[in-house]
Specification:
Layout: E1 22-25, E2 28-34, E3 41-48, E4 53-56, H1 63-76, E5 82-86, H2 92-95, H3 98-105, E6 108-111, H4 113-127, H5 132-141, H6 145-148, H7 150-161, E7 169-171, E8 177-180, E9 183-190, E10 197-202, E11 207-211, H8 233-247, E12 253-256, E13 262-263, H9 265-286, H10 297-300, H11 310-326, E14 330-334, E15 340-344
Parallel strand pairs: 4-5, 5-6, 6-7, 11-12
Antiparallel strand pairs: 1-2, 2-3, 3-4, 8-9, 9-10, 10-11, 12-13, 14-15
Helix pairs in contact: 8-9, 9-11
This protein binds zinc ion.
Zinc ion (ZN) binds near residues 89, 193 and 194.
């Protein structure tokens, strides 16, 4: 693939089948685990050293994933232990089995400090059932009490699908070099989808492990969450996209967590930036008349918003509004019922 390529290119025709590994480069292997959601799979990356393995992301903490890992370990890992477990971020399919894999192998978990703190925060919220802040957040968005009942279930999911983490955790920060598969990988922290998402770039192999920060077909969820209603993850995500565009060329092979490995990182980043900026403009335009967070759903999302994706839709819609507020394109006002309305600045 050349830098001048005009289209995103997928060099692999098929994803690995159950418990199969596909070699994507010397010492780098691709494993796919299935998930019982609309987003039905996650890609994991295994890197081979002389006497141990490293894995990037782990799959969900459930029986099916553990069973599949057992098979993979027996069939493909040549008796060598998994000594390094890297979780790109704290979402369940990326961190779920980190504790289990580390315990079985006396391995070590590597994650960013921001992701670890987000996980601890969330766990405290679930354990203390401290949902008042969430209630307020969704009320402000224009969601009624009945629809809100889903929040505890939605957030409780995280707890079940992430197993207990190891006692000792190692942090990776932006710019650090991490060795795995006999190669040096540079940590690039992305923001917006999660607090401090780890991406790993190996210049000598021309490979970028992107996690959820850069996906080929779907866009990463970028949401405001109840505990930080004033956050501006959309701008953080756009800044990260611009930064990655400066680091990656179209020749690099991108290994995403969902979808197929691809060439054309810059093309994809341009698409993502353009789409989000277009959405921001359309939303700003629609705010000639006052709008609530829920009013923006038809404009922002092609898929129908139902009870199952309501929390994500609400968080993502708020992320667009907060970005426009911080760009001074909108102002907001709370009505007597406590609901927030956004309007264009005249
Ligand atoms: Zn994620």
């Amino acid at each position: 693939m050349l830098n001048s390529c005009k289209k995103i290119h997928y060099p692999f025709a098929l994803a690995p089948r159950e418990s199969e590994l596909i070699k994507v480069a010397p010492g780098v292997f691709w494993l796919q685990l299935l998930m019982p959601f609309t987003l039905n799979h996650i890609n994991l990356w295994l890197l081979e050293d002389d006497d141990f393995w490293s894995v990037v992301d782990t799959g969900l903490n459930n029986h099916e994933s553990r069973k599949l890992w057992e098979l993979v370990i027996e069939k493909h890992l040549k008796g060598k232990p998994i000594k390094q477990v890297v979780s790109t971020h704290m979402h369940p399919e990326h961190l779920g089995l980190a504790g289990w894999l580390c315990e079985r192998n006396q391995g070590e978990l590597w994650i960013s400090q921001g992701e670890h703190e987000s996980y601890c925060d969330l766990l405290t919220e679930i354990q203390q059932k401290a949902y008042d802040v969430a209630h307020e957040f969704y009320k402000v968005a224009g969601i009624n009490d009945k629809q809100q009942g889903h929040y505890a279930t939605f957030i409780g999911f995280f707890d079940k699908l992430i197993g207990r983490l190891p006692e000792t955790i190692h942090y990776l920060g932006d710019g650090e070099l991490f060795k795995m598969g006999g190669q040096e990988w540079r940590v690039i922290i992305g923001r917006g989808h999660s607090a401090e998402h780890i991406c790993l770039f190996c210049e000598s192999l021309g490979i970028f492990i992107s996690g959820d920060q850069l996906l080929p077909e779907i866009s990463s969820n970028v949401s405001v969450w109840p505990k930080k209603p004033g956050a501006n993850p959309m701008e953080e995500w756009l800044v990260s996209c611009h930064r990655l565009r400066g680091i990656l060329d179209n020749e690099v092979l991108v290994l995403p967590s969902h979808g197929m490995p691809f060439h054309g990182a810059r093309l994809r980043l341009n698409e993502l930036i353009d789409t989000n900026e277009r959405n921001l403009n359309r939303l700003a335009e629609s705010c000639k008349k006052p709008q609530r967070v829920v009013d923006a759903f038809p404009l922002l999302f092609k898929a129908k918003v139902t009870q199952s994706n309501l929390m994500m839709a609400c968080g993502e819609s708020r992320a667009y509004f907060n970005c426009l507020l911080s760009r001074r394109q909108l102002i907001s006002e709370t009505d007597d019922a406590g609901v927030l309305w956004f309007q264009q600045i005249n």
